[in-house]
Amino acid sequence: MKVNKVAQEKSHGASLKWRNTKAKRCRPPVTSSELKSSPVMVKLIKEHQAAVKKKPKVKRLKKKAKTISGSKKNTHTPYECEKSYPNTNGSAAVTMDNESDDEEWSANGESTHENGEKSADGIETVSSGRLEGESLHYCAERDEDRNHAVLVMQKAQTLCFRGKCLLTCLYGRVEVMGFTIEEGQQPYPLFSPASHCPLTVTALGSTDDARDEGMEATAILRKYLTPASRKRLLRRISLNSSVILLEPMETPLTRFLCSFTELSELFSPPVSELMSAVLDTPLNGLGMIPLVSDVEGMAMSQSYREALNTVVNACRGDGDGCVVVLVCGTKNVGKSTFIRVLLNTLLNHTTGIDYLEGDLGQTEFTPSGCLSLSTVTEPLLGPPFTHQRTPEHMIYYGQTSCESDLDRYLESLKSLWSRRSQCRDTPVIINTMGWIKGFGFQLLVDVLRLLPVSHVVQLGHGDSMQCPTLTPDLLQMAQGYHTKPPAHTPMDEFTEGPSPARTYAHLAVQSAFQGVGRQGASKHQRSNELRELTLLAYLSQLQEADPGPVRQLHCLTPYQVPYTAVAIGVTHCEVAPSHILYAANASLVGLCCLAEKVTSKGGPVVLSQAPLCPCVGLGVLRGIDMARGLYFLLTPVEPSILRKVNCLLLGAISLPSCILTTQSGFEGEKPYVTTDYSFDLSGAGKIRVFKGMARPGQVGM
């Protein structure tokens, strides 16, 4: 692909505007504007602030912390004051050159707080449980000048919140979604939007009993807090405490998403949680809103924990071959969340895990409609739209369901698996679709027979059976879409018979979270909204990395691609060659690489059928110049990789409407947007072509 991109001058006024905005964010008082909340939230804040003045300052926690499985060694923890644990990272020595700090620690140890209990060594202790209400005022201190907060948590204390932040563990350990964050590690971004279950940070214990917590804590807090704030927190730190630093976080992703009116409150509590939000705490001005214990965080059943432990122990063992885990289940049972927790937990023990994406609708690392093979090396501390990345191998299927072309789906999965080196011994996690009936069940059977699966984790809910139990015995009898069960003859018992049966461990998991089996009804929780969020997150990579105003897509400079350099095709339906450019204009396309060279006689090169070829990314075909024979393409893919692209594939994945309806600078109707259209007219909708017709042998099954 030959590409040209015109350089643009950067606006100097934009950077000044950003600096002014940042200065406002650093103002000392915590007001409703810092929370970027709705009018309802503003009213709640004012009512809460008035009520706080009348309440006695008594520190109390309503619930005890949820027990953590003993085999689950790495978990994130909230920043709160609770009973502390020994530290696993306490090998670094801290030199003290100021004796006054030692005196300050000793003085603090002799004092007693009016709302705490004094232990034998003079350090105030707090009961375990959810950090909420007044307890956050005693466990957290905020530095207004540097706009960050330090939170002290005791062992098993939790912090459940909405919002986003950067978390750095300064002392001890905390766990988030199965991943353990220890002192000395890099800051990690946490995303807890209203579209998914709120994140919970859990404090863990330490394994080093020989630490001098007084000297170390003093040295740590001196870097981040004023003397007065430091003095108040020191008396709450013991050997088993965890201390975390919380900072506000703004990225091109969050700026781009929040620039759309309907997404401006994406990181605020949904309406159902407004009454459970803890307001006017040192954390609120940082973009975090703590939640009381009435709001349930991520719920794990006993079978959930046992399945996690079984897979982790298998990956840590010395067995032959690599562990290949297939996760399956019906829709809305928590497959994606289970996989994220599993990946995070495995990252506590290994440097990388391979991930094969087999779910076209709810993808993890790419926009919907893509099948991919990725290597995960960083924890996933947010929903899919917060960690979009380029996989090692990808195929653009172009639809959110494979029901119209089952053969292409299976061939795509086999092609991706063949690209993985068979010499790799890293664990593999395979995600599957929520379509588990009819042809969907037959596809599951095919995947189990085609790939060397060692563990099957099957999620369900309630007493009813959503899908037959996929045990090895069932695999000997089930009919696949491409494969058949092994043939048996009366002579098998006297001979060696057919090839030995496939064996794997089957792990049944009962999901127990609130609303299991039902699609979310709140804003941003429906499946189509989640798909749009993922695509918007991918397109946010077009924004500048430096802080500044958001630039809408029609303001960006596109690549100019000649007709003769690329072929164009459609994956999901049949389009007449004379109409294909009308269909592709202002649409999302997959950037693919055909093995053969594209040749043209001067006009567009149109493919008669969708090829099965590698895809390097997605782009927006924002315009077509018929006179000069050029496609105008917007994509975050690097120019060095774009030179290999020679095919554009149009699928059924459409651009979010907010991209087209929020275009500014136009008078009258916006480009590509019209209201003068009726789907009631005959032929107004797209024609669906189903290629997965039942074979004669399957009729009546």
Describe the protein.
With 701 residues, the chain is α+β, with helices and mostly antiparallel strands. 22% of the residues lie in helices and 19% in strands. Strand 1 and strand 2 (124-125) form a beta hairpin.
Identify low-pLDDT runs: 6-38, 52-125
Q: What fraction of the residues are assigned to beta strands by DSSP?
A: 15-25%
Please, what is the average pLDDT? Answer: 80
- How far is the N terminus from the C terminus? 48 Å
- The tally of helices reads 16
- What would the principal axes of the Cα set say about the shape? globular
The oligomeric status of these chains comes to single chain
Per DSSP E runs of 2 or more residues, the count of β-strands stands at 25
Helix content: 10-25%
* Helical/strand content category: alpha+beta
Major sheet details = 9 strands, antiparallel
Radius of gyration: 28 Å
Labels describing this entry:
16 helices, 701 residues, 25 strands, 7-stranded mixed sheet, globular, alpha+beta
Brief write-up:
The chain has 701 residues and is of the alpha+beta class. Helix content is 22%, strand content 19%. The protein has 16 helices and 25 strands.
